[in-house]
Amino acid sequence: MTIKNVVVAGGSGNLGNAVVKELLKAGYKVTVFAREDSTSTFPSEVSVRKVVYGSVESLKPALEGQDAVVSTLATVAVGGQNPLIDAAVEAGVKRFIPSEFGINTRIVEGTAIGQLLQGKIKTVDYLEEKTKANPGFTWTGVSSGLFFDWGLAYGSIGFNKSTKTATIYDSGNEVVQASNLGFIGRAVAAILANEDKTANKYLSIGSPNFSQNEVLAIVERETGEKWEVQRASTADEGKIGLEKLSKGDYSAFRNLLRERIFKDGAGLSAKGDNSANGMLGLQEESLEDTIKAWLRS
Ligand SMILES: NC(=O)c1ccc[n+]([C@@H]2O[C@H](COP(=O)([O-])OP(=O)(O)OC[C@H]3O[C@@H](n4cnc5c(N)ncnc54)[C@H](OP(=O)(O)O)[C@@H]3O)[C@@H](O)[C@H]2O)c1
């Protein structure tokens, strides 16, 4: 049976909103799950179900007749996805896409940043277990790298258009895995459309991947001005991250992330064999057009 009815848990969020839009465009029938006290609003084509994420009894009836669940739940909630998985299995849902959508969490076990990603890592471990016990149930994990268009505005790419300043790590030449939100939404739609090829796989996608120096060249060309560049080292970010981690300060994540992705020679971009872009038939996003749209916004 082809996947038609799709639940997006947390569909009101930064990523969820884009996933809902792309699933609707691709012709899926979308139901969004929201918490009881959520005040989020949704497009009129979407059905909304209020649920309690910690309760299989609340979730199971809301999942009856659904083919797939895409979880785009907030970072704080990723460690609590097991009841949603249990209810999906009980309701006969065929595919579960957990709230991953960042760095590849299957290759960070034993590292400092891996300690902060246990919620995501254990969720995928749990999905693997559930799949073995329930052959009709499948999962797909998606590593998208940094949210690129969202990150330009939010500051995680290192550029500030109001002050025309940038923080560039190491040489700035490292190519970093990243994805625009709409691109991730299209990847999710393509995963569900390619059910067999994507079953029980952890996939990395990314577009536009970028280097900080490429972004700098584009913003300076487009604004016609030199931006003030502060140089920083990923080794320092790593040290700060470890120091914070030793004190139980979880803001260590940002420092450890910068060390991991911007470090010269990190080699983590989603290209060639490291990328499912081609297998999913995804059209690449333009780095230049994305930056121009951000500068205009
Ligand atoms: N790669 C990147 O650069 C990057 C950046 C940010 C996030 N991420 C990852 O992407 C995924 C989605 O993140 P996001 O920023 O899109 O999420 P978000 O906007 O922070 O939250 C998504 C939705 O989750 C629900 N939610 C919020 N707090 C919750 C809680 N305590 N318990 C249950 N549900 C809660 C809310 O929906 P309702 O109010 O409607 O219930 C919210 O709209 C996460 O896995 C996150 O780690 C990646």
UniProtKB/TrEMBL annotation:
Keywords for this protein: NADP, Oxidoreductase
Any coiled-coil regions, as ranges: none
Superkingdom classification of source: Eukaryota
GO molecular function terms noted in the UniProt entry: oxidoreductase activity
CDD domains: PCBER_SDR_a
Pfam family, one: NmrA
InterPro entries: NAD(P)-bd_dom_sf, NmrA-like, NmrA/Isoflavone_reductase-like, PCBER-like
Residue stretches making up the NmrA-like domain: 4-233
Name assigned to this protein: NmrA-like domain-containing protein
